Amino acid sequence: MPPLPGLCSFFIASPDLTVWATDLPGLRPWSRIAEIAVSTSLKLIEDCVTKDELMIHPNDADGDALRRLEADGDILTRPRNIDFAVVFADANSAEQFAEHFRALGHTVSVEARETDGDFPWDVIVVQHMVPTYDGIKNFEDLLQSVADNWGGHNDGWGCFAEPSSA
Fold first, then answer.
1. Assuming Cys at both sites, which of 2, 24, 58, 142 could form a disulfide with 63, CB separation 3.0 to 4.6 Å?
2. Which residues of the chain have pLDDT under 70?
3. Rounded to an integer, what distance in angstroms lies between the CA atom of residue 113 and that of residue 121?
């Protein structure tokens, strides 16, 4: 798919976290398109960028994870199962939380883990979705609102990459 009018074929990220873009064939002036977290060195990126492919993520753990997926060639517009972890202090609380999401049709697993002494019970809730920043945040908010009933808290998410088949 060719780039859409107004979007760039080449763009450069500057150390002050500003992204500047140009449409080189028309030699249009540089224009600011977004502020994103980038490395401290200038980075010239040559690519065809379509409106759907231009994804900007906030500078936090979820945004970092989405940027890593994109950097590895993941096509973030493809839905997939995402595992969301929620941890609890005791087995009973973990099972009650898990049962709530099983009743909603989610695949859920509960297991003890040895890595966290205060919250040793790990509940994984699987949500099939497109991995968007807002979608992940909204589902994490839902999980946390239910986990609050049993003293649990979110402990991250993960998914398998859906790389381009090209």
1. 58
2. 1-55, 116, 165-166
3. 6
